[in-house]
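Entry for the shared binder. Reason: the reviewer on the internal report wants the predicted structure included alongside the sequence.
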Amino acid sequence: MSNISCLLTVVLFACSILAHGKVYYVAPNGSDGNAGTSSAPFLTVQRAHTAVAAGDTVYIRGGIYRMQESQIFEKTTGSTPFAYVTKLTKSGTAGKRINYWAYPGERPVFDFSDVKPAGHRINAFEVTGSWIHIKGLEVVGVQVTVTTGNTQSICFSQTGAGGNNIYEELSMHDGMAIGFYLTRGANVLVLNCDAYNNWDNVSADKKGGNVDGFGAHPNNASYTGIVFRGCRAWFNSDDGFDIISSYAAITVEDCWAFYNGYSNDFEALANGIGFKMGGFGTSTSPSVPAVIPRHTIRHNLSVGNKSSGFYANHHLGGNHWYNNTAYYNWPNFNMLNRRADYQADVPGYDHVLRNNVSYLTRSDREHHLITDIDLEKSTVDHNSFLNPAITLTAADFVSLDMTLLTLPRQPNGALPDTDFMRPTPGSDLIDTGVEVGLPFSGAKPDLGYKEGQTVLSLKPATSQVSAVYLYPVPAGDELSINIPARAAKAVTISIYDLQGRKVRSQQIEITDALLIRLCHLSDGLYFLEACYTGTNELITRSKFLKRQ
């Protein structure tokens, strides 16, 4: 992107925000005695927090913020005392979020290496407010000071009842803390975030048994609408994604977990599960909700974790597992459930597994492709495993190069677009799946987390990928879609909210301009999918902001 384009983007963003609220600035060379303007910025996010109201935006300039113990906002007492360094308690409203955003094109890094309050669990950023959007921040070096038992410090935590929050493009790494952790709040989106190289080597057995990349444990059945999308977790000492003891259904989609349970030099550490999806422990009298939630796990990738790639974790019911890929875990899929009377573990029941791929495990035993599944009490079909018509070899995949998994994200924050485990033309994985309500290219869905054909954009006759443009930015009552290489076919436009619910669908004929009306939608962030009508060939999957 040219400097002029970057400047234009910043100006348009600023103009849009200024029309709806005030703008404040935080910078490493700022002072909390300043006015918070661009020329006289604050030093801390906590100081900016005291100034904001619904609809306001805090721009956080790039650079290193070396956090100090003197900046701790609040310390608690009791059996598990916490030290909250930055605590965001104020709330926005629907259509008027409070935004804490990295300044466009810059990367603010918050270093907590020097924050070591004795005997306290450290929460770098604690959120209790609602309608908050945190974007583009990097947190490193969060410490652990409690040595008895498996303790936990946290980079970003939501333990208050606030809801409708977005955590986007956050990077949490090279510390002793959990990346993201939630126990309360509904309608929360964790989008395009990374958690890696986190290991508590101080407390208990020094294996880091509580340090997951991402954890969500909502303790009330009303805390629905929690979604993890486009996130990566690797080299975390415990698990990649952990949703044990969740009272509400959670969706995990388009996420990657790899090398969890290891240090970055592959020293074996704690559990090391890629996706730990459910369960309430192994107690014979657990605390459970009246209705056991069914979690949805789709389009995810789990590679080279110390233990299970995808794990039902003694769950008391089934989950939906669609279009996931597991490679070189031990085992790849483990559907172990707990008996309904809580008294014993049993093979998994009531699960639905479709369009999944399981290729090679570290044990190299075929029965480790999937374990602990009751086939008579579950729906298991159209997968690469337990299917005599499918034989997989390395030739079925464009690449098995694991180094592709740590490539930088795309400019829009999306996961890197790689050929890792993409099915090759002619593979048994192509057009072998069954429709489960997800976009696909070709005659039928392919198996696994990635389609054999690129489905994010069109490829015109030059083979140069053609961009799809959405305008205006932000959108008002109408949104135009420009597809330079549009084929002579009708197009179906579908719009989804942050909870994945379809809120608008419209078929546009060949002769009509691609224009969709948004007047019935509330202000906020939405996702758009454009497909050719009748073929389900995906043209683009994009996001846009709707704001009056």
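Summary line for the report: The helical segments are 3-18, 45-51.
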